[in-house]
Structure formats: C-alpha cells, structure tokens
Amino acid sequence: MTTIESFDLLQPYKIAEETFVIPWALEAPPVGHFPMNSMVIRGAEPVLVDTGAPAVRSQWLEAAWSVVDPLDVRWIFLTHDDRDHAGNLLAVLAECPSATLLTTWFSIGRMAEEWEIPINRCRFMTDGDTIDAGDRTLVAKRPPLYDNPTTRALFDSKANVLWAVDTFATNVPTPVPEMAALSPDEFRDGQLFGGRLVSPWVALLDAQKFGKVVTGFQQLDAEVIAGCHCPVLRGAQIPEAYDLLRQLPGVPPWTEFTQTDLDQWMAAAESSVPPEQPRPSAT
Predict the structure, then answer these.
(1) Mean pLDDT value across the chain
(2) Where residue 283 falls among pLDDT bands split at 50, 70, 90?
(3) Which end of the chain has the lower number of beta carbons within 10 A, N or C?
(4) How many alpha carbons fall within 13 Å on the CB side of residue 159?
(5) How far apart are CA 135 and CA 20, in angstroms?
C-alpha cells in the first residue's frame, strides 16, 4: 500500500485489486489543499473513471497510461462534465479508440457549448444502470451530495470499491493518500466543511429524507471509498463519514470568504514580499 512517505501527486497508487487512484491536489489557502483525483480500473475491460483536469493534461495522461495501455481502455465513465472531471476527455477519446463513453444525455448537452462529443461512441448510464466490464459489474448511483445535476457515482461490486465523486469532499492540510492520515478533528471538520462547500443546498433539506438517501448509498457496502475530492476511506472511518454526512442538513451553512478577506490576504502577501534590490551598475 502507498504510504505518506512514498506518495507523490500524479503518481498512480493502488487502492484495491486492479484499482488505482491518480492523485492531484490544488492549493487552497487559507484552508490547505483540495484533492482532485481520478481512478483507473485495470481488469478485463479497463475503465477510466473521470479524465482529470486540463491544467495537468500531459502529466495526467502519462500517469494514466502508466497503469493501462490506452489501446486497451474499453470504458470511460464520466461522473459529470465539470472540468476537474472531464478536462481531458477529448484527448482520452482520441488516444483510446476502442473506448465507449459512459455518460448522460444532459452531460453531452452541457459540454456542447465547447466540445463536440462523438455520440456514436456514447452509452447513457443513469442512476441504477449497470455495465458488464468483463470480469466485474459496475453500477451507476446518484450520490447524496453533488455540485452538478448530471453526477453519478460508480460502484465496482467485484473489488467493493465505491467512487463517490464529490461526496466526502474534504480539505486537507497537505495531500495524503488515505483519510487515516488525518487527525480526528481534521477528518470531522473536513467532512463538514467539504460537504457544505460542494453542496450548499444541503442546508435546505429535510434531514429525515436526506438520511434515507444516505442510507441507500451506504447499503452498497463498499469496503473502499475513493473520490475526486477526498483521500481514500477505509474501515471504521467509512461509517463515521456516513454519520457526518447525515448531520449536514442541521449544520449552519458555511460562510463564504468576502472581499474583506481578500483584501487582508493581499495586504499580507504584499507585506511579505521583500523590497526590490537595486541592480549593480554597469561597468
């Protein structure tokens, strides 16, 4: 298993049998970092789960092809069309000629403002649909939290791995591969912050109805949970994370940073910049 000491961004690491996370993260002052991950299932019919961010396109493609030959990729599961998930989609489609894009009608429409997706290479996969990927069955599932109406999570019943997309999003002090690397306070505070950040509408929900949705998701009984914006969850932290998720409708909304905050940050940044040194005179 990858350790904190051996963990590097954009270096794939194994989280379960034939299953790898490609990690990336954005620096997000003043709250630390936010993971920006994607996943590869090698298997009999290899699957890319999301396609990474365009900001690191060349590095992401190199990382993905270090796990699987692009000519072998059979499926591209696009959880939704946001750029941190779909940013390298056209490049991936070009390099994976045998791959079918698992997406939705609405996602294609939302991407049409910028990209022309080859509809003949698509297959619609909505909530509850399954795909036979040769040696495993993959299940699409609407997650409890999301920031895009097209979002679907993916459950691999063979490896018992759940790709939870934006559910369980958390900020981290520094990028880490596993949620177990966080302190109990960092874990709790991160879950409550990340959930309200990506889904501010959760404060408007009926807690009992939302709880039933959470329970339905939890009943997938995943042994490993990965996601775009979180380190990997295992063991006792999985039920803890679901318990924190159920609390979100009763937690006051997160207060966004304001222009006053930005002014203070800019003033602090300016005061930390050393004065320009005079250049030596030419001789």
Answers:
(1) 94
(2) very low
(3) C
(4) 25
(5) 16
Global pTM? 0.92
Two tokens, residue 138: 């993959």
Query: By C-alpha distance, which of 216, 262, 232, 213 is closest to 170?
Result: 232
85, 50 Cβ separation under 8 angstroms: yes
Four-residue CA torsion sign, 125, 126, 132, 135: positive
The residues, any chain, with a CB within 8 Å of residue 170's CB and separated by 6 or more, are: 35, 179, 182, 187, 190, 191, 193, 194, 229, 230, 231
Domain boundaries, the chain: 13-269
Would you state the pLDDT for residue 5?
58
Distance CA 46, CA 65 (A): 11
What are the start-end ranges of the E strands in the chain? 13-16, 19-22, 25-27, 33-35, 38-41, 47-49, 75-77, 100-103, 122-124, 130-132, 137-141, 153-156, 161-163, 224-227, 230-234
Cα angle for residues 140, 146, 147 (degrees, 5° grid) = 130
Residue pair 74/133 in contact by the 8 Å Cβ criterion: yes
CA proximity to 34, closest of 275, 244, 228:
228
CATH architecture of 13-269: 4-Layer Sandwich (3.60)
Beta strand pairing call for 100-103 and 19-22: unpaired
- Maximum distance among all Cα pairs of the chain, rounded to whole angstroms: 79
Tokens of 152: 């679907």
How, if at all, do strands 224-227 and 161-163 pair? parallel
